[in-house]
């Protein structure tokens, strides 16, 4: 049977030849998933031989990754704000950019907070665990909400998952904060997207109509209706959506940039 160091070398070569980013790291992540060990194990035991069942699982994971499946959908997990979230192809894989939304929300959070399009629950669960606010997690997708609920349960967060279309079921002036990382990719950007994203992540969570703005157009007026006076709206933005989104908001705004300097989060307060 093959030894660990050779299995990693062969896996990394296969991934590299298939054009996968970070082939060595990816091989390590996939083998650690197949063996139920962490990556440090490989450095301590390079000469250990794989068991047959580990070799079979590893081979299957390599094959899936070479076909374009994101590593996180193979291992079913992604770290966000210091915690491991379960992910499935029913939800977007949480991105580090979205941690800026958390940072922007934390100092403003109070009362009842609604996360629109909760997906994995990265935002709602993190805010529930980091603050004492009451978190309601909405998604139009029932499959996504099951992942939201699973993450809340595993991480010990108290949130209320609700299946509905944006904020239509909420009463006027009933909410203290609305947060959302809505689908904001333009349909016509489809061809220029990474295949991992385009072919594997849920289109429902990615695409916001032709120009990427259709969800903002519906969500912002609804948010304005359900927010209490003094309540806050925080939205993640696509790389070029700031001017169009700003124009939809009937209040002064502030902006948080991501590490690449892109305006990534817009914050505003209802008067
Ligand atoms: N950040 C994701 C991407 O560009 C899109 C997320 C979204 O539409 N909210 O891959």
Report on the architecture of this protein.
By secondary structure, the protein is of the alpha/beta class. It has two domains: 4-67; 87-269, Rossmann fold, CATH 3.40.50.150. It has helices spanning 4-17, 23-35, 40-44, 52-66, 71-75, 99-105, 122-130, 142-155, 195-200, 203-206, 214-226, 242-248, and strands at residues 77-80, 83-86, 112-116, 134-139, 159-163, 175-180, 227-236, 253-257, 263-269. The chain has a seven-stranded mixed sheet. The longest helix is centred in the N-terminal third of the chain and has 15 residues, at 52-66. The protein starts with a helix and ends with a strand. The protein binds glutamine. Residues 92, 95, 181-185, 197, 206, 236 line the site of glutamine.
Overall residue-averaged pLDDT value: 97
DSSP strand tally: 9
**CA-CA gap between termini:** 68 Å
Helix content range: 40-55%
Strand order of the largest sheet: 5-4-3-6-7-9-8
Percent of residues in β-strands: 15-25%
Q: CATH superfamily of the largest domain, called what?
A: Vaccinia Virus protein VP39
What summary fits the major beta sheet? 7 strands, mixed
What's the CATH class label of the largest domain?
Alpha Beta
Helix count, DSSP H or I runs of 4 or more residues = 12
CATH fold label of the largest domain: Rossmann fold
The radius of gyration is 21 Å
Question: Which stretches are low in confidence, meaning pLDDT under 50 for 5 or more residues running?
Answer: none
CATH architecture of the largest domain: 3-Layer(aba) Sandwich
| SSE order | HHHHHEEHEHEHEEHHHEHEE
The secondary structure category is: alpha/beta
Listed once per kind, the bound small molecules are: glutamine
